[in-house]
């Protein structure tokens, strides 16, 4: 086996290592740590907070096996299970502007008629505001129902367009987050933010695997960054197949 000691593989979570908001399969988990990690350094980079990432990795003991866990696009970073740094959107943007944005978002969502609406429409995270028209308290079936509806009616894209028009001078980026939400964060706090944390390791290559790589998707910037080699995937199974090919795993 050829060991590549100076190569880093970074992975999105939703749609890449797991189905949206689901737990990583035993097969892929075992493959990652038995076949991939012995060959390269591995890290996660997600818009989600640490608790959600841990849940999807089936426990903290699994998440801690990754060399890096970059939560909220890397604004919160863990190395080998230890919290190293964190930033705050509140300090960056300020309470007044955040409230104006949240009030606008709530008013916009109040006018939407969707197949279902549940609770937790606005989630405040360290690095971002996550806005969810269907509500993050929705069931898995309701999540999938909204996702199909959104593909047809572009609910989230129209929401992003309205936010961009309303707040053009706030220094914020509005992006489609995962399957059902919109991420709002300071410009530059996209997933490329995490690359600042690995510069000191001087990797020869940094590979990124993600599914939302189109313009407006939250993997777009890091997938297209000159510092990374981007791999667009369509599912966890596709991720595994691409890893087998990239690493010449028999």
TrEMBL record:
<comment type="pathway">
    <text>Nucleotide-sugar biosynthesis; GDP-alpha-D-mannose biosynthesis; alpha-D-mannose 1-phosphate from D-fructose 6-phosphate: step 2/2.</text>
</comment>
<keyword id="KW-0413">Isomerase</keyword>
<comment type="similarity">
    <text>Belongs to the eukaryotic PMM family.</text>
</comment>
<dbReference type="InterPro" id="IPR036412">
    <property type="entry name" value="HAD-like_sf"/>
</dbReference>
<dbReference type="InterPro" id="IPR023214">
    <property type="entry name" value="HAD_sf"/>
</dbReference>
<dbReference type="InterPro" id="IPR043169">
    <property type="entry name" value="PMM_cap"/>
</dbReference>
<dbReference type="InterPro" id="IPR005002">
    <property type="entry name" value="PMM"/>
</dbReference>
<comment type="function">
    <text>Involved in the synthesis of the GDP-mannose and dolichol-phosphate-mannose required for a number of critical mannosyl transfer reactions.</text>
</comment>
<keyword id="KW-0479">Metal-binding</keyword>
<comment type="subunit">
    <text>Homodimer.</text>
</comment>
<keyword id="KW-0460">Magnesium</keyword>
<keyword id="KW-0963">Cytoplasm</keyword>
<dbReference type="InterPro" id="IPR006379">
    <property type="entry name" value="HAD-SF_hydro_IIB"/>
</dbReference>
<dbReference type="Pfam" id="PF03332">
    <property type="entry name" value="PMM"/>
</dbReference>
<protein>
    <recommendedName>
        <fullName>Phosphomannomutase</fullName>
        <ecNumber>5.4.2.8</ecNumber>
    </recommendedName>
</protein>
